Amino acid sequence: MDPRPIDKDISHPQMDKEIKDAKIAILTCPFEPPKPKTKHKIDIDTVEKYEELRAQEEKYFKDMVKQCKDSGATLVICQWGFDDEANHMLMHEKLPAIRWVGGVELELIAIATGGRIVPRFQELAPEKLGTAGLVKEVAFGTTKDRMIVIEDCAASKAVTVFVRGGNKMMIDETKRSLHDAICVARNLVRSNAIVYGGGSAEIACGIAVEEAADRVPGVEQYAMRAFAEALDAVPTALAENSGLPPIETVAKVKSAQLKTKNPHLGVDCKETGTDDMKTQGVFETLIGKQQQMLLATQVVKLILKIDDVITAGRYD
Question: pLDDT tens digits, residue range 133-157?
Fold first, then answer.
């Protein structure tokens, strides 16, 4: 979905639920009278004093709402809450408002709408307002959950993936899958180099390492051959998980690579009839494959550096 969602709703049920060509005031100051920083106590012993206090408080709210209206805002998004009197005045002035919006969300809204976050009502100005083509409150699901969506933002190229599921486990799993897919896309943006999957890259690397081992004298060649053998673990696992005979399948693919000199041949997990991963369109990023091999090699080197493992109760 294109819009920027906010997991909030319009603060008053009688406010407009849809604002077209919205001018958005993004506030981090609360709709409430100023509080002195020192301790204070007010004694009210007459009706006149109470009415004077109420009138003064009402004036504060009216001034705040007027400053929002004078700036040209048609929607107020506030980081803090406001009481029923301020909410009623906003509704009376036909100025929709959203309250208790988190700081991170405010920053994202400001970036998307091209607005400025305003810390004081006195600093409100038309040039600090964000713009959006449409802001509306939508309800969805059988529980009629409500949320705000901001569409046609002035300075946003982002999209939102909205995930709903039957339980938290399904949602978390979906989020992890989306994160993995986005990381793959990010790697392709960083480097568009790819290798073909199905274990073809590991088999081709194993063959190359074995050929290099033949030219290395001394005991180092045994370590290289062990590394080449370890690379076969990936295509072996693929074949086993696909219900294919692992040893026979990997040996067949490796033999075909040696004969045809085609490094794209891998394990046909989908049983399409061809082992050519280029034809099947199975590939992964070169950056991801490099990281896999580097991390696996580092873990093995770390283990080999351990001379002995002392377990509790084994030594006196």
Answer: 889 888 877 777 888 888 888 777 7
- For the domain bounded by 4-162, which CATH number is listed? 3.50.7.10
> In this structure, are residues 53 and 25 in contact, taking their beta carbons and an 8 Å threshold?
no
**DSSP string covering 182-244:** HHHHHHHHH---EEETTTHHHHHHHHHHHHHHTT--STHHHHHHHHHHHHTHHHHHHHHHTTS
Residue 299 Cα to chain centre, angstroms: 29
Q: Which residue in the block uniquely carries the two structure tokens 């046609």?
A: 152
112 SS3 class: helix
d(CA 102, CA 124): 20
Instruction: Quick: pLDDT tens for 50-109.
Output: 888 888 888 888 888 888 888 889 999 998 888 788 888 888 888 899 988 888 888 888
SS3 content of the chain, % helix, strand, coil (to 5): 45, 15, 40
CATH dotted code for 194-304: 1.10.560.10
CA distance 198 to 264: 9
Query: Distance (Å, rounded) from C-alpha 23 to C-alpha 21?
Result: 7
Q: Report strand pairing: 145-153 vs 130-140.
A: antiparallel
Judge whether 130 and 113 are in contact, CB under 8 Å: yes
Of 155, 160, 97, 147, the closest CA to residue 130 belongs to 155
